[in-house]
Amino acid sequence: MASKSKRTSQIEPRASPKEAEFTVRKQINVAIDAQMQAYIDPVVFRKVFTDGDLVSITKDGMLCGYAEIQPLSKPTLDPAQIQLSPVLREQCDILTGDRVAISKFAFPESVVSEVLVYVDGLSNPEVEQSVRSLFSTLKYICKGYKYALEDSGSVHVCDILTKQNEAVSLYGAAEPGDTEAQIFSVPEVYTLTFADSTESRLKSPFEVTYDSIGGLDKEISMLRMFVDLPLNRPEIFAHFGVPAVRGVLLHGPPGTGKTMLLRAVASETKARLITINGPSIISKYLGESEAALRKRFEEAHNNQPAIIFLDEIDALAPRRDDDDSGQAEARLVGTLLTLMDGTASSSTSRVVVIGATNRPNSIDPALRRPGRFDKEIEVGIPDAAARLDIMRILLSKIPHDLHEDDIEHLAGKTHGYVGADLSSLCQEAALSSIERNDDIIQDKTSDEYLNLRVTLSDFQAAINKVRPSAMREIFLEPPTTRFSEIGGQEEVKQKLREMVEWPLTKSDTFQRLGIQAPKGILLYGPPGCSKTLVAKALATEAGLNFFAVKGPELFNKFVGESEKSVRDLFRKARAVRPSIIFFDEIDAMASSRETHSSGADRILTTLLNEMDGIESLDGVVVLAASNRPEVIDSALLRPGRIDRLVYVSPPDREARTKIFEITLAKMSVADDVTAERLADKADRMSGAEIVAACQEAGLQAMNENIDALCIEWRHFESALLKARRGITDEMIEFYEQFRRSTTL
After folding, report:
1. In the beta sheet, which residues pair with residue 275?
2. Can you list the domains of the chain with their CATH numbers?
3. Cβ neighbours of 618 (radius 10 Å)
4. Between 143 and 713, whose confidence is greater?
5. 518-541: buried (b, 16+ CB within 10 Å) or exposed (e) per residue?
6. What are the coiled-coil residue ranges (predicted)?
7. Backbone torsions φ then ψ of 669, nearest 5 degrees
8. CA atoms of 485 and 399, how far apart (whole Å)
9. Least confident stretch, 146-150, 371-375, 600-604, 617-621
10. Alpha-carbon distance values, 299 to 293, 302, 308, 644 (Å)
11. Largest CA distance in the chain
């Protein structure tokens, strides 16, 4: 007999309030005794519910389940959101992002006499005791429900017998008030019987399911429509007189979760998964590759419902008109086309073909038509919200001491990271923690390692080591310069913050006002005035992925290669957006088309198309620097391409003082050497010339005494007198005139 302590056999009726609607969100780290609990904002909870309330959950007006409603300990949810555990979402057939309504209800005194359960896995006295302990915490019970066990596996409620010795029909209730046939309060005393088998075996929540994948809710919803229905409900398509979807192509950058999505689809649909990798069926003998492919399709048709997974399909079915494609590839593609047509022609077939690739344009075009790959789903690089979802799932398996704000900070900082990158980031953070606690790890006699946790500092160290996959082929050290290290130019710094940081942090305001962020910014001014340094500091301060390009680097002697380099550059920047592309000395590659060769013309035309062409440049800012703005082609400087022109002027006295302060802080100088005195002596000098003069003063001090302890005033005075001043009155007048002619 199973007994319950401090439980009542009857839930007191309460007045039902008006239904409240919520958007479903995932619940992470679900306790064993809280699998059937739903969580909402504590303020909303206090207004409507009280402790111990049970609620019905309806979706689209249809009753789909029940839960015990609880307030979150901290208000981390939006008031219009509700957290449901993976087990509860599975029972109710609800996806994250769905809209559900909940309302209180009451049900009569329990009439349960016996509950028949089945335990997945090995059943022994310890497991049975674990089941009894779990059931002693339950307030209510339903036939068909499944509960996860503490160690592993799960227990399924096969049947419920009432005191009248009548079996309860599964999902017999049609209305929230009609609960006798479906839901019961658990009495103090009842019989718990362990069955040998069950016809309603449910999958474990710990398998690879949709719930174990973060940040792909939209893609999962599409897969449910394109794969679940053709496999499990083909009669729906027959009712509408249309053919079911027979092929789905998943495409996107490497590491975004295409293969994991496929594994989840197979698990959720209970379908037979048949994987075909190119090398596994390729044979050197004529006809054997095609025979192996036909055998796999035959196996799928004999084990329906089935999913045929073609991983890296671009290697298996390349374009037949490609120069590298031979007769063997053409025969294999032809066989695949015939087999897919055969699958599509059968109205009773419960076989779906899913292909995955990161090069969709390399696949033979004949495959990408209705009847073969009917639907294409792009699995793109996750945004900040999706990265947060992924990080929560990854961290649920890692001992850590991060708060929710820390996780949100990491998700916001990891621009361009895909799921595989975030997994690698967590691994690197764990390795950092292990290295930091090496003395504890090496002590094999102690179990103190069980108390170790991954900290925020471990993740911050890991971010410097793990770069987005799309940027790993770019050998560029991320800039570390900050605005505080640049003397003066405060107006320029503020303008750049407004143009680059505001669109990221205040995107809702931009949308509300109906305005767009600038696509391009040109920094122009005399040489040595910190244009390049400001660009590096902007990338560091904004936390964006940074691509630095010097104009001449893009030129190639082979026709078309230079333009390809420009296209590849923008493609990579879009892949890891938000990002900055910095063109230093842009006048070398974008001077007026009236003055340079046809090769440079093609590069400029490609650049113009990328900045304001058919494909959007959202999330990518083009930052350029030049000290010859007058030679840049006018088509590049129009609104919609380079929208803003920012004049980086020579430093005034205040800016020169700041530059000297920053430079002298790294030097050993005499007490009478001050930044203010030096600034008065450095009129018309650029920032680069000031730094060079300070270096010259140090060398003069060493010439006098190789073991000098400090640099004296006379050394600085001599260096400033000898310093070459490259900024002339004519130069300043030219830049001022250009600024006036381009000011809006």
Report:
1. 309
2. 17-104 (2.40.40.20), 112-194 (3.10.330), 214-378 (3.40.50.300), 384-471 (1.10.8.60), 483-647 (3.40.50.300), 653-726 (1.10.8.60)
3. 12
4. 713
5. bbbbbbbbbebbbbbbbbbbbbbb
6. none
7. -125, 160
8. 37
9. 146-150
10. 10, 5, 10, 62
11. 109
Per-residue model confidence as pLDDT tens digits over 579-601 = 888 888 888 777 776 655 555 67
Q: Which of 189-193, 459-463, 728-732 has the lowest mean pLDDT?
A: 189-193
CB 110 within 8 A of CB 183: no
CA pair distance 651, 656, nearest whole angstrom: 6
Rg, the chain, Cα only: 33
Cα–Cα–Cα angle for 160, 161, 165, rounded to 5 degrees: 165
The two three-digit tokens of residue 584, written as one number? 């230093």
Provide the 3-class DSSP secondary structure of residue 272.
Answer: strand
DSSP secondary structure of 26-70 = E--S--GGGTTEEEE-HHHHHHH--TT-EEEEEETTEEEEEEEEE
Phi, psi of 570 (to 5 degrees): -70, -35
The sign of the dihedral angle between the CA atoms of 662, 667, 673, 679 is negative
Taking only the tens place, the pLDDT of each residue in 221-239 is 888 888 888 888 888 888 8
The answer to whether 134 touches 32, Cβ cutoff 8 Å, is yes
Tokens of 557: 């002697």
Question: CA–CA separation, 735 vs 744, rounded Å?
Answer: 16
> CB of 569 within 8 A of CB of 549?
yes
Q: How far apart are CA 537 and CA 521, in angstroms?
A: 15
Q: How far is it, in rounded angstroms, from Cα 406 to Cα 408?
A: 5
d(CA 446, CA 431): 19
pTM beyond 0.85, yes or no:
no
